[in-house]
Each structure stands twice: as C-alpha cells, then as structure tokens.
Amino acid sequence: MSAPSAFTVFRRDKPVLGLTSGDPAGIGPEICLRALWEPWVLKHSVPVLFGDAAVLERVARLTGIPSAKCRTISISELAGISCINRPLIVDCAAIDAAKVVPGKISAACGRAGYLYIEQAIRAALAGRIGGVVTAPIHKESLNLAGVKFPGHTEIFTALTKSKRTCMMLYSDKLAVSMATTHIGYAEVPRKLSAQRVLDVIELTAKAVRRLRSREPRLGVCGLNPHAGEHGLFGNREEEKFIVPAVAQARSRGIRVTGPLVPDAAFTTAQRGKFDALVTLYHDQGHIPFKMLAFDTGVNVTLGLPIIRTSVDHGTAFDIAWQGKADPTSLFSAMRVAAELCGAARMNRAPASRPARWSSRFSVSGGQAKAWTPTALRRGGARRSARKS
After folding, report:
1. Cβ partners under 8 Å of residue 264, min gap 6
2. Confidence check: pLDDT of 94 > 90
3. Cα-atom radius of gyration of the chain, to the nearest Å?
C-alpha cells in the first residue's frame, strides 16, 4: 500500500511542517520555541515540534521565552490524528530533562536528537506532515550514542531508502550543492565519478527550478587549482568526471557550464552568471556560502521522497539555553520548506517514495539497531560553534 503524498498535507493553503528540536543541550530547543511564536511561521505554516516537552519547559524558563500555547501530544497520539490543523508539540520522551547539561556533549543527548529525527521522518513518510525542518545536532554526541551517521543528510538518505541525494545550501544570495560532504579530503577523488557529478547536477537543477520558477543556469567547480589546467594539477579529475557529466547534462536540456576555476567561481561577476554552483567537497561550497549568507542560509537535502530543510549552523554549545540564539536561519529554513511544499503541490508531481519506513536503523539503549518492520546559530552574537 502506497503512503500518501508528503506534499499534500495542508491546512487550507498552509503546509504542515515538522520541526526537530536538535541536540537538547544546544540552541535547537530555544530557536524552535521562538518559531512557535513567530508570526510569519504561524501565518504560512502549521508547525509540529518533535522534542521533549520537559526540556522545552526548562529552556523556556531559563531563556524567558513564553511557553508555547499549543497542545502537547505523545507519539502514539500523533499516529491517531488524521488531520493536523493547529501547532503541536510531539513529546518524544527521549531524555530525562533534569539530566541535560546545556553545552555538554553526551550520548543521551545524541540519542535524543536522533530519535526526534527518526519520528519526524516516520511522520513525513506516513503523510502526517508535509516536510521536516531540522535544528542542529552534534556529531560527537551522535557517535557516542552509537549512531554512526556523520550528519542529517546521511540519516535522511538511509531512513528514507533514497538512491541518490545531495546537500544544497540555499539563500537569495547564493545556492551551492555538494558532490561529497562529510569525508576527509584524501577520500574525495575516490568518491567522485561522472555519474555522481551528473546526479548532483540533475538534483540541483530540479530543486532550483522549483524554488525560482525558471530554468536554472548552473556552474560546476573543478576539483584542482585552476580546474586542473588540462592535467597540470591533480590526476585529470576534471576530464574524467566533470567534462562527461556536464556534456551528458547538456544533452538532457540542463543549462550547465564547467569545470569552473574554483577560486574565481564565487566572485561577484561569476556568481551573477549562475543560479547555483555545484561543488565537489564540503568546504569548497560551505566556506563561500557562509561568508555570504550565514544568517539566512538554509540546508536542503535533495533527492529525498520528502522535503527536508535545516539551519546552516551548529549547536552553538557556548550560548545554549542563554536566550542569545538567533533563530533567523531556522525561520529561513521553514520558509524554503513551505515554498517547496507549495511548488510540489502546484506541480502535482511529488517524487515517488517507499511506502515503508526503513527497518535498518534505530537507536535504543544507546546503540544503533534494527527497527522491526511491524513496530514500526547562528548562535546569537557570537559565531563559535558552526558545524554542518
């Protein structure tokens, strides 16, 4: 039996957006609480926050944020709701709130952050929410909890059984996608192929077409200095991977140019030529993007059967639970998620997706294990804990 489309979950013209509150010890709970009071958020979406009610209450008291005036329900109660028409808090009961230490890495917080994501993905795949917007998690805490995924992108890819995905950072100033993300530099060339570069080009073109309602112009950065200088630098990765991928994308009607010289691709003059740039590794895209759009940037996972956006900053442990965290990036992520929901609804062409939740990964007792098929910162004024 096919799951209902994730893109048809609306209250009138408002998409229902699931928020995950991120690592409990970080700024995620604070910025999510602010989202439940934000007029734009409430006007253009119906937020459903996945977290721990007791943690949210502690954060509200310490930061002076008023407690959200919305109903709190359990995970089992969410499963019984056929239509969500008002904001909700889904109490995942994943952690003892009294034991959470703001700004501290811990297995318990890593496990809780993962469980919030897990439940939100399940709700999206079941058609109860129209998309997922994630607050930051801490990779070291995840690892301590036995969750071996390096980040959100890999978690969403695995739990939705997606075949090809990539990360895109999006803002009104710049959009960049990445062929590889959370791996060491030495591993990058081994992870590249013409097919992988082509996949990222196609995913990027589809996403930007939806967001900007026009046929996008894309550029693909080279891997090596000066884009290899025809083999002078590197091992001809540009000729092996980028040139054939660009040629094939063009044959499919995509307006794409490459390989571009990486150190010039992000200059003002060059950026004006493109709607998005495809980069080949994490920092090649992240550094210029965060220089230009750190406050408003949005992380989007492309290629999923559900919509997923995120803040483009980290847990900001140094200012957690202090009332200093700026929620602008979260609001931007919700705006982009709402736009993607609306675009998909207008197109009437949501991506096909599996009817079942992936049974391969779950966390219990601090260890990753199989889920049985039937059970189914910016962080305020300072910019220290930036991780994506």
Report:
1. 270
2. yes
3. 20
Angstrom distance (rounded) from CA 278 to CA 306: 22
Q: At a CB cut-off of 8 Å and minimum separation 6, what does 184 contact? A: none
The predicted-structure confidence for 256-265, as pLDDT tens digits, reads as follows 999 999 999 9
Find the mean pLDDT for residues 93-119. Answer: 98
pLDDT at 376: 23
Contact (CB, 8 A) for 111 and 361: no
Residue 85 neighbours by CB distance under 10 Å: 12
Domains of the chain: 1-162+304-388 (3.40.718.10), 168-294 (3.40.718.10)
Asked whether 152 and 301 are in contact (CB, 8 A), the reply is yes
Q: What is the pLDDT of residues 218-247, one digit of tens each?
A: 999 999 999 988 888 999 999 999 999 999
The answer to whether residues 307 and 131 touch, using CB atoms and an 8 Å cutoff, is yes
Q: What is the DSSP string of 162-178?
A: -SS-EEEEE-SS-EEEE
Long-range CB contact pairs, 62-69, < 8 A, 24+: 62/321, 62/322, 62/323, 63/30, 63/33, 63/321, 63/322, 63/323, 64/323, 65/30, 65/33, 65/34, 65/37, 65/323, 66/37, 68/33, 68/36, 68/37
Q: Supply the pLDDT for residue 113.
A: 98
pTM here is: 0.84
